[in-house]
Amino acid sequence: MSLVLGLFNYWIVIILMMIGFYVVIAASNLIKKIIGLNIFQTSVFILYISIGKVKDGAAPILADGVETYANPLPHVLILTAIVVGVATTALGLALIVRIKEAYGTIEEDEINEKDGSL
Amino acid sequence: MLVSTALATVFMRDLFAVIMLFGIYSLLSAGFFLNLSAPDVALTEAAIGAGISPILMLGTLALTRKKSESEPQAKKSINGVFLPLFVVTITGATLIYATFDMPHFMDPEAPAHNHVAPRYLEQSYKEIHIPNVVSSVLASYRGFDTLGEVFVIFTAGIGVLALLGFLADGSGRTYWQFADTASLRHHNILHVISKILIPLILLYALYVQFHGEYSPGGGFQAGVLFATAFILYTMIYGLQAAYAVISPKVLYWSMVVGVLLYAGTGLASVFLGGNYLDYNVLAHDPVHGQHIGIILVELGVGICVAAVMMSVFFNFAGRTFDPSSQKKGGE
To answer: CATH second-level architecture of A2-54+68-117?
Structure first.
């Protein structure tokens, strides 16, 4: 039982990660691929934050009378990663817009077709 | 709940619904982060995941949907579903097998908590005098990481500009209007409410920026919140009005200024005889120097992030009704 409870969070992370992974592989629409990538990314964030959590730990803002804190390091890494993530997502979306302009579609198979016929 | 929302995103065909669900998913995960005692991260995720990235995705949708309105019926072959499913299941099973070696959730003895983290928690108040450990680690102990990340954001912003860039050279025949807001512009309720909300959001952003040492917050969150306020303004009042408030040129410059402020703080500490990004030398008293350094650096981060987000949004929005790009899209 403690095994299940102790690892439950990681399993959720893995399920989410695999959902994102599946979308990235299987979806043919490029916007959906980006969303899949974002789900994947969020699962990694959750993994880090779960690692940072300590039993009975408070948020890492020092205060009197609080003994245990959550680990601040993963928080730092993830909070910058989220902002970097949205910046790179924006870059991906911009690429999609340009692909749409060049190919007239954002469906992967149609793009491949056009590439083949060129 | 998180899993079910994520699953729903997979099965939805309609992209609009998918994007909305993604916003909900982000909000849920923000709540999850708060639950795991990570308020800083939750704040960032809520502002970004539920605010900015769905807006950008919707912007892309508006740009790419023009022609292929009626094409979401992607017919998938058996191969197209089961092969990825197979790969995913194998990978997932391997990963789950790997978790059996991991320290249990919330275990205080886990290796992650016994390396540098206790030092940060115990020494940072003495050295920096800032209660929010996340801020002091972010801006001071791991200043190099953060500098690198700011540069990544900056580069991504430049990339978007290069890909979608309309530089504000006033190239006459294009008229910038955010297509979807044409109808919003005459909604009185939205006008009044946004007029009340926007100053509050801006004020909150400034609070988050300058109070980040004592409560959750800091440059990253403040920049994003600031950008959100402007994006709301743009959506309600149209791009023209937004340009009147803050012109793209100012944004491009402030992107650069933000990065340079961060890098310059590092250089200043070199000139004053310390190491790069070693704030101790910025004032006579090391603790005071750390304060100045962190405030400057967070300000640089905030300016850069806000400017990048806003200019990215302006680029997406400005492209929507750009006749020249529509012509290109038709070819």
So the answer is: Orthogonal Bundle (1.10)
